Amino acid sequence: MKTADIALESIPAASVRFREIVPGGANWSHVLKRGTTLRLIDPHGGLNVALLAFNFELLTERLNVPDSLKAQHTAKLTAGHCLYSDMGRILLSIPRDTLGWHDPLTGPSTPETIAAAFGAKSFQEARNKFHRNARDNFLVELGKYGLGRRDLVMNVNFFNKTTVDAAGKLTFHPAYSTPGSFVDLRAEMNTLVVLNTCPHPLAPPAPYAPPPLHLAVFSSGPVPTNDPCRTSRPENQRGYELTERYFL
Amino acid sequence: MQLKESPLDPAKAVLDHVIPAGDGWMHEIKAGQTFRIVDLEGNQAVDTIFFNAADPAERYSPQETLRAQGGIYLTTGTRLMSVEGRPLLTLTADTCGRHDTLGGACAAESNMVRYALEKRSMHNCRDTFMLQIADYGHGYTKADVGANINFFMNVPVTPEGGLTFEDGVSAPGKYVEMRAEMDVVCLISNCPQLNNPCNAYNPTPVRVLVWEKGT
Q1: What does the pLDDT read at residue A13?
Q2: Measured between alpha carbons, how far is A13 from A16 in angstroms, rounded to an integer?
Q3: Nearest CA to CA, how far is B115 from chain A (Å)?
Q4: Which of A59, A149, A186, B57 has the most crowded CB, counting CB atoms within 10 A?
C-alpha cells in the first residue's frame, strides 16, 4: 500500500472531505473551515512545505511566528503546539505529528537560494520544470486574496529541522523527513492556508527536484476540553478561550 | 558575540534624543548615516523595525537576517536584511554582545495568552507601534508592522528547540551601532513589558543618536 494511503488510514473515511496531490514547487491555498483538519503527508521523504496562515474573515490578522514561539517557549513546532495569529488567537493547532520537529526559523526559499543550490532555470529553458522559489510562490498565491508584499510575514517550513547551538549557529538537517511522515493542522478559526512545496532555503546543492505533497482535509469537530493542544500549557488554555470568544 | 566599540563622538551627532520608558520613535535615517541606540540604565529591550524609506513594503526580515549570517543572535557584523534579501543596515559596533530577533513585540492580545486575560490593558509595544505609524503618515498600516529586532534582549534557544526570555546580558551605557545601507525608516518601541525579565522588570529610557556619513 502506498505510504500516503497508510498515512490516511487513521482518518475515518466518511470524514474525509477531499484529497489532493500538490506537485513539488507548486502552490496551494484553501480556507480551512473551523472544525476541519489538514493532513500534510510526505510520501517520498525530503519534502518541504512553506506555509502562511491568515484569519480569512480579517486578512490583516495573520500568522505571527514570534508570538507562537514565545507563548509556547519553543523554537520548533510539533504536536501539542498552536500557530497563533497576531491577535492572540489560534489559527491552527497541531494535534498530531509523526516527525517531531518543524522549522519556524529559516523563512522561504528565494531566487537567490534556489540559484545557489540548484541553479536558475526559466520557463523558456525548462517549461514546467522551471526552478521555483517559495517567496515568489507566496506572492503569487497571496495576490489572489488581495494580499501582497506587506503580508509576507515569517512562515513555517514543515517537514524540516534547523537547530541552534549554544553560540546561536544554525545547522540544517538534510533528509530529515522520512516517507509516510505526516502532520495534522487543525483549523481553530476559518483559516486561510497558503502553502507551496518549493525547496527549503538551506537545502544543499542537488538537482532541482522538489518532491510532492499529499494532503487531505477532513472533518474533525469541536476540540474536547482534554485535547493535548489545549492542555499542553496554560498559555494555550487562554489562547483557546480567546479563540472561542471570537465565535460567541 | 562580537564586542566592538565605536570611535564616534556623541558631541558630533546630528540627532541626539532620549526615548522615555514605554515611548516610541519613528524617524528616517539616510544612507551612510550611523545610528546608535544606548541602553542608558541597562537591560532595556528596544523593539525595532526598519523599512526601506522609498518602499516600506520592503521591510526588515528576521528570517532573511538569521539565514544570511547562519546564526540567530545579532552582533557586530550582522547585516539587517530586508524581506527581499537586501541589507538595510549593518551593525558596526556592539558593546552588549547579543541581540534578539525571534522574540517579537509584546501586544495586548499576546499578553493575554502569555500571562492572563486581565492583562489586556497593560501598555505594550504593539500599541506603541500603532500610535507611531498613525502619527507618522506616509501610508503605514498594521500590515507594515512586521517582525522586529529586540536590541539588548536575551532570548536563548537551546539545541533541543526550547526558547526562553532570560535575564539580560546588557548593562548601563551599553550600545549598538549601525550604518544605514539605504535610506531607511526606523520604528522603535521602548518596551514597557513588566510580565517577564526582558526589561529587568523596570522599563527605562534609551538614547538614540545619528551621525552624518563620514563623521
Answers
A1: 86
A2: 6
A3: 7
A4: A186
